[in-house]
Amino acid sequence: GITAAMHVSSYAVSQASPLVNLCSIHPPFSITQRLLPQLSGSDEFFHRKAPHPSPQIFTIRPYRPEDKELVYKTCLLTGDGGADGTHLFTNYPNLLGDRFVGPYTKLCPSLSFVLEDDEGVCGYVLAALDSKAFYEQFEKQWAPEVAKQYPIPQFGIKEFTPEE
Questions:
Q1: pTM of the entire predicted model
Q2: How many CB atoms lie within 10 A of CB 45?
Q3: Angle 49-11-3 (CA atoms, 0-180°, nearest 5)?
Q4: Is 147 in contact with 113 (CB distance < 8 Å)?
Q5: For labelling alongside 60, which of 6, 26, 109, 142 has CA 20 to 30 A away?
Q6: Strands of 112-117's sheet, edge to edge?
């Protein structure tokens, strides 16, 4: 049978209305309906209703190549368990995006969406219709090309950093 994979991330520009990061195996349209302003929470399977509705308006639209920089930035800003991961990837700030965003936008562009607020891109929803086929393409097409941009970690010297 066909299995689905999805990666969802959002970054709140203001602390007043952070967004919940949700990930589930649903068609992208149903999961994006759940990307609403929340007061708190990042548990992927717990959806908490905001006590006060937000007047902020969000738009979900298809990903475009010119979104890459902001979507990669969002990935980095949520790259430390939902918190800002910039301090963990100082040498290679695109590493998380290359691992968790790029494969979807390149291999499954029709299932790649961005979330926008009045300040621009603030989140994304990425999916693959068939997980097995996606990971096969990832290993054969995406990973070998992207790996050329990053040095091979030296084994036995010390503990690995998140970048390694």
A1: 0.66
A2: 7
A3: 75
A4: no
A5: 142
A6: 5-10, 120-128, 112-117, 59-62
